């Protein structure tokens, strides 16, 4: 039973608004570290925390009120010039925001959060009293000034989860802390049994244990003592099913619905006239006009409804400055994450699925992409690296780019690593150009790191990025210049609800292929087809492209020689899909197939004449064909047919 009985609606409203506020606060805190004298930024942060504290007080969440009050007082001192911000203070502040986030998770499960960790509260109190906190970052930049001797602060009773200070100088083990924070590539630890309390790891600052600045949604908020079994049982966190919609957009939907209602009445009247035998030219012309009007209105309504699902991508982007800041601080790098195009809108369901790929790409840019301060200075670059995360709408697609000005990627090194790890053979390696070599980083198990660390080296991550992007009917491309940096470009449809397709016909059956993969349509003549290594190819503008018969990919026997080719581009390569004929372009709503999951089929849709059209998953179809036996024999037979 919920501990917020009678306030469930208020609780959900509070969590929805406050989660967004806290994410915005986190993003602005990272900006504040760059511009500590920005009073406007400080005021925004102060107001955000004040709003969260007010809502928590209304819901009687004393633990959150107490923590927010201390943090709010700290912001007040900063904006009044009574304190000066430094990285150690920021670590404590970010620890507080992470704990508030953990409290949100507990409240989402209908439980009252426990008090914040005593060490964190003590550290906040110490900062408010004007005591300086001095920490030792294991990976601090070489040019960073040495920290002065720590000011002694009375320590609270130690807890079992503390990371003990180094015996030599009493400084905290920051490396162990950050390993715990950022080890997302590591194999997950065994899940605790229900009712088992798992405390958050702590770090000691001047003998004050502080909760790390990271959120662990599956773990209850750390407390000064272990809670009871009933308190610590954690229920699964449910995915948010609500969405905020601008009332202007809802008004547009309502107006269009009214217009459609009027047109429906007009059509009903015309139907009655026609059924009564009134078939004169004026009646038929009125019928045609009414149907055309209905077509326009339904299209407008469809677009208006889709817009109600669209959300600014900035709500997702604002999570990453904190991620980049924490990782760069651990690695001893100086990184500025620049966000652009935050107002670009994307379907809300796609935003949620896009989070994991972007986390991996931002982490890789900071870890692999940019150099250390010393390396950058030696290369004649500025000490601070720049990583840019941008979004822009291009037609009916959205383009997201992650760009860094780091060391770039060397195709020859990537090819060599893939060979050493047994991911490709020598023949394949020799046939790859530079662009194809870059794509090798998406292979499962690939990594250029010789040593496995808490951040990378296990060869997991980039293959997940590619898989998740493909699930969203998108693609990811790479450009890299050695010594100048790399650019990862993600291209996605604006929504998954409606898919633009090209409908083709083979063996008298229609099939739909994603229009995003289509570059152009070309005729196929037998004299154009050449055999290269036993495979059919066609040269298109000096580019040698393999020809793949759709009928053969489906495992069918061709009834006629294909006459047309669809030049398509997948995430890894380009090819020509040979088909019999075309039906045309269409925007379809994909329906999943119940209880059956054939290879290469994403779902089905209805054509204008009411017949069922299968929507093909080309990536899956190509992979299934590549792994099947007899591909070379089928290809040879296909070449003979084309040449006949």
UniProtKB/TrEMBL annotation:
One of its GO terms (molecular function) is phosphorelay sensor kinase activity. Residues 255-496 form the Histidine kinase domain. Keywords: Kinase, Phosphoprotein, Transferase, Two-component regulatory system. Residues 158-168 have a biased composition (Low complexity). Its EC number is 2.7.13.3. It comes from the Bacteria. Residues 498-627 form the CheW-like domain. The modification Phosphohistidine is found at residue 50. It catalyses: ATP + protein L-histidine = ADP + protein N-phospho-L-histidine. One of its GO terms (cellular component) is cytoplasm. One of its GO terms (biological process) is chemotaxis. Involved in the transmission of sensory signals from the chemoreceptors to the flagellar motors. CheA is autophosphorylated; it can transfer its phosphate group to either CheB or CheY. This is Chemotaxis protein CheA.
